[in-house]
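Morning. Coffee machine broken again, so started the prediction first thing and wrote up yesterday's gels while waiting. Chain of 293 residues, entered below exactly as on the submission form.
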Amino acid sequence: MVSGTWLDADGLRTRIQEIRQFTSRPFGVNLGLEWPQEERLDICLELGVKVISLFWGDPTSLVDRAHAGGALVMHTVGSAEAAAEAVAAGVDIVVAQGWEAGGHLDSKVGNLALVPAVVDACGEAPVVAAGGIADGRGLAAVLALGASGAWIGTRFLLSEEAAAHDRYKARLLQARETDTVFSTVFDVGWSDAPHRTLTNDTVEMWETGGRQPMGVRPGEGEVIGRYADGRKITRYDVGFPRPDAEGAVESMALYAGQGVGLLDDILPAAEIVARIEAEAMKTARRLASRVEA
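Came back before lunch.
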């Protein structure tokens, strides 16, 4: 799944064309509905993208347009009610994103309760579970809850291919399951949007300052780094540290789900997939043997 929300038209075209050089298999583009996405959707359809993933808003206005362009539509929800609305709007696949997830999320319910509720609300529409799934045991668990598959994010930040700064990856390797925080602290660029990140000195500064809103927070406007293109990175910026970031990387938005505590190595993405599949199958066989016994 490609994050297309913040790419301009040329950047999105380039990203899609780059992916096509590496795979002939289907892939998707994820678009956040906090902002108008008609132009980006049209680019995706023009270039033959077969899966459009939407989140953070009402997908209704884009569903027919995507279908007419030959794409399936996924939509991320945080409740059974939102799942039923998505299916009624014509969404093909519903993503149930639990409170455990890293990055931006619109849920206050953990996957153990959320996934089966969403599955029940969706009828025949397939459900993909997202949030806190970091290994094959997690995949097996959400399949047992009725999901048809899993959306895995944080585990792939610790892949060799991930476009994340080395010091970001180092923090992920050190983190425990208790080291993330659900907040709205990183809001420069996207205000009032809840998200889960690792705790760092920016989070601590915000908390000790009384969790003040934008405009009155300690350290606000402080430049803590730059990207290679010269763009400044200020404290509380919504952007995460890409490999070209320089400066106080550990003070930036270090998005991570609660499954981060299960991670202790950096591997090629293909090996991560293979290990998750093998462990899920092993877990399923173990559970089946217990039931038969």
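The first strand starts at residue 2 and ends at 3. Going to sketch it on the whiteboard this afternoon.
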